[in-house]
Structure formats: C-alpha cells, structure tokens
Amino acid sequence: MDWFVAPDYWTSRLVFQRALAGVYLVAFLTAALQFRALMGERGMLPVPRFVARVPFKAAPSVFHLHYSDRFFAACAWAGCAVSAALLAGLDSLVPLWAAMLLWLIPWALYLSIVNVGQTWYSFGWESLLLEVGFLAVLLGNDEVAPPIVVLFLLRWILFRVEFGAGLIKMRGDACWRKLTCLDHHHETQPMPGPLSWFFHHLPKPLHRVEVAANHFTQLVVPVLLFTPQPIATAAASLMILTQLWLVLSGNFSWLNWITIVLALSALRFPSGAPSVPGAPLWYEVVVLAVAALLVLLSYHPVANMISRRQVMNRSFDPLHLVNTYGAFGSVSRIRYEVVIEGTADDVPREDSDWREYEFKGKPGDPRRWPRQFAPYHLRLDWLMWFAALSPAYAGAWFGALVERLLENDRDTLKLLRRSPFPPDEPPRHIRARLFRYRYTTWRELRETGACWERVYVREYLPPTRLAGVAQRS
Predict the structure, then answer these.
(1) How far is residue 325 CA from its own chain's centroid?
(2) Which residues contact 27 (CB under 8 A, 6 or more apart)?
(3) What is the dihedral of CA 301, 302, 305, 306, to 10 degrees?
(4) What is the SS3 assignment for 82?
(5) Cα(206)–Cα(190) distance, integer angstroms
(6) Which helix H or strand E contains 438, and what residues bound it?
(7) Residue 25 contacts by C-beta under 8 Å, 6 or more apart in sequence?
(8) What is the three-class DSSP state of 439?
(9) How far apart are the C-alpha atoms of 131 and 390, rounded to whole Å?
C-alpha cells in the first residue's frame, strides 16, 4: 500500500538507526563498567534483594529468572555487541523479520537492566531510550520503505519530550517565566562540563535571550513537526541546534543526544529510496496493530501534560512503551556538594589527617576543571548531586557507599577518580561534609587558577568506622 510507506525518508531512517545504535552502545557500556559496585551481588543496591521483593509483573526483567554478576555482565556486553553490529549496518544485510529481532534484542536487554536498576536508573533518558528503541523495532530495513505511522510516532515522542519540558518549566519555577533561570543553572546543574563556567559568565541579557529561545523551541517549534515539509525539517533542525547548545553547556548523559536522534527522523534528506517491493502484509499488520496500542497508551502522558499537577519523567507501564518527560521544573540557586574524606587515625579528630576522595565528574577540588563525559553517564556522581540537595535522596545507598570505601572495595573505587588510600591500607574512619560551591569570577580565576570557591556549611556524616556504619537520620 503506497499510503503505508514514506520513501522520501529512506535516508532519514538510515541516519536515525545508526545514531540510535550508537546511543544504545554507550548505554550498555555504561552498565557493563559500573554495575558491580552499584547493584551487583555486593553492590550498594543489590539486584538479588530487589527482585526478591518486587514481582516480575511490576518490573519485567530477565534477572527475575536468574541473577549473578557474571550473567549481568554477559547481558551488558551482549547489548554492546548487538548495538555495535547495528551501528555497522547488520540489520540491512538480513531479512526484514531478522532485522526486527535484532532491534528487539537491545530493547529487551536494556529493559531488563532499567527495571532492576532502582535509583541508579531512575532518570528520564532511560525510559526515553526504551520508548524510542521499541519503535525502532518497527521501522524496517532495506527491504521496505519507512512506515509513515512509525515516523509519525517518532515525531510524537519528540513533541512530548520538548513540549512537556516546556510546560513543566512554565508551571514550575518562577525564574523560567522571569527569564532568569540561567543566572543560576550553569552553576548549579548536576554535572557541569568544561564550558559551563564560561556559559555562566555570559552577560545576563544573553541569558534572558537563551531562556526566551528555549521557550520558543519547546512550546512553539514542536507543533511545527506535524506541518508539511520543508517546515517540519526546519523545526527539527532548530531542535538539533538547541540540543547541541545544551551539549556544550553541561553533562546530561545521553538526554540531548537521544533527542537529536529523534529529530533526525523528522529530517527529509535530498536522496530518496531505491526501488523496493511493497511491504509484506504481515509487517503492515504488526506495525498498525502496535501503533494503535501505542496511541491508546498515550492517554496517560497526554493527561499528565495538560494537568496543572504535571509530573516529570514517569513511566505509565512496566515496559516503558509510552512515558512522560521533562527536566528542571525548578532550578537551584545555590550549589551544595558532599565531600567525602577518610583518615587512617585510630581516633578521629578535627586535626586528623583527613584525605579527600576525588570523583570523576562531580566538583571536588576547586582547582580541578570539569571534564566532558556525556553521553557516558557517571551514575554515582549524579546521585551525589541529589544527596547534596537532601540526605533523603541518599538514604538507601549512602551508608553502603561509606562501608565499601572503608573496605577499599575495588569495584567501588573504580567509580572514583582517585582514592587517597593505598589498596592494602583502607581508612579507619570516613566522614562527609557539606560545602557550598560557587564559580569564581574572572579575576579570581586569574589570581588563583581555581574555577570553584567553596565554603564549609556543616557536617553531613560524622566520622564512621567499619564496625558500625552509621546511617544518617
């Protein structure tokens, strides 16, 4: 059926699929390299403990059937291998049904990881990758032209991502309506990047322009995705430029990159499709049936989007097929950081030799300039930002982190940039202190070489030893 496919988007599909495979590869690599310390058998939030109390129906995952660290590693590295194969174009070399199965494998494996990931996998970009990845199963390969209904659903996701984020800002923090949020955001965002200091020091009038442009891109431009070409391509291109600006300004895992991937599917490139036969009937039936289901499931995110009590980043089904998104409904005015220190002294005193642990991404040493990590996701560093906002965010895992630092646990230390203690000489005590951080001025940067200035606020965790790791109240 001619109405079923859109040959003009042949190249768009190809670019979209290869880019999505790249995001999948980063996601699985992140899981493979970090899971043992975070949620392994001896992790801070162990998967076996989670699956023992949460039924399969509530969180479908292969790890309900069996869990071991070796099995998890096999699944994560298998996801890397399949993603790399898709990135190389293997789906174009096999029959249509095999290509669909190939795209189903990373979706099922990543769903299994997210559904047991607990706090470590509670971010909106996890659900977004799964929702987009599920649609990629239906997009076809070189045997058929791209189905129109799947292309429409990809734009529908992009619309919800941007429009939902725009609404949550307008309904949330007043600084978005006053155009002043970027006076603070670059300094207080979860993980600044190497250019964030410079973004923060842009003239305030330019910050106002940035916020106004953000509102336009998120509240007006998404509607244009459903207009005829070339307007839809122009709208998608503007979204890509906005996301690249955000990539430069901070480390937001693959949130910006998956949004760019979605926007690529809306672009119409000059080259069209080669001559291919019509789509087989079974394929049309499957695509239309699943599309109808996804449209029905869209009721919940639409109801949430138009509600005055709109929430961000929530999944409405255990398969993460249709979700709601949003970011920074409120913006912090002050940056706090939890600094963890250890000492080898038997009796901890204020004048003891306290040595600071250094994280890879989160601010620590005021002289250490932030690095670019996104789209790779430093999960512990991100959760440390939440822990600084409130101890309630860290209640489930912070005590376990301290315990593993007292043990010099090898897997946990791999998540850090540097431990101040030799592998065979763990600290006797660990403490945590809360500091207020602010960017230095141009003059302070020239005089001290430090990009941060920090001031002690209060004790976060008193000196604790391995015999009884204290949880904060």
Answers:
(1) 12
(2) 79, 110, 129, 254, 377
(3) -150
(4) helix
(5) 22
(6) strand 429-439
(7) 80, 83, 84, 87
(8) strand
(9) 30
pLDDT score at 272: 66
Distance of CA 307 to the CA centre of its chain: 25
Element (H, E) at 417: strand 416-418
| Residue 395 reports pLDDT greater than 90 | no
Q: Quick one: which of 177, 189, 316, 308 has its CA closest to 255?
A: 189
Rounded Cα–Cα distance for residues 189 and 157 (Å): 25
Q: Which two tokens stand for residue 324?
A: 């709601």
pLDDT digits (tens, 9 = 90+) for 356-386: 999 999 999 999 999 999 999 999 999 999 9
Euclidean distance between CA atoms 189 and 420, whole angstroms: 27
| Structure tokens given for 270 | 């000059």
Instruction: Evaluate whether 3 touches 147 at the Cβ level (below 8 Å).
Output: no
What pLDDT does 473 receive? Answer: 32
Do 54 and 136 meet the contact criterion of CB atoms below 8 Å apart? no
Amino acid identity at 216: F
Task: Decide: pTM greater than 0.90.
Answer: yes
Structure tokens at 365: 């040493």
Q: Is the dihedral of CA 92, 94, 95, 96 positive or negative?
A: negative
Cα–chain-centroid distance for residue 218?
A: 19
Element (H, E) at 51: helix 47-53
Residues 6+ apart with CB under 8 A from 390: none
pLDDT tens readout for residues 54-94 = 999 999 999 999 999 999 999 999 999 999 999 999 999 99
Query: Token digits for 276?
Result: 């291919």
Contact between 316 and 324 (Cβ < 8 Å): yes
Whether 108 and 136 have beta carbons less than 8 Å apart is answered as no
313 dihedral zone (left: phi>0; alpha: psi -120 to 50; beta): left
Q: Which pLDDT value is given to residue 340?
A: 98
**Cβ pair 436, 457 in contact under 8 A:** yes
Q: Could you tell me where the DSSP H helices lie in 298-414?
A: 299-306, 379-389, 398-406, 410-413
Q: Which helix (H) or strand (E) holds 256?
A: helix 255-264
Going by C-alpha positions, the residue among 23, 21, 425 that lies closest to residue 259 is: 23
The tokens for 201 are: 């020091």
Could you tell me if 283 and 144 are in contact, meaning their C-beta atoms sit under 8 angstroms apart?
yes
Tell me which residue of 30, 12, 4 sits closest to 254, measured CA to CA.
30
Q: Are 467 and 386 in contact (CB under 8 A)?
A: no
Task: Please list the helix, strand and coil fractions of the chain in percent, rounded to the nearest 5, in that order.
Answer: 55, 10, 35
Q: Within 10 Å of residue 342's Cβ, how many Cβ atoms? A: 27
Strand partners, 250: 192
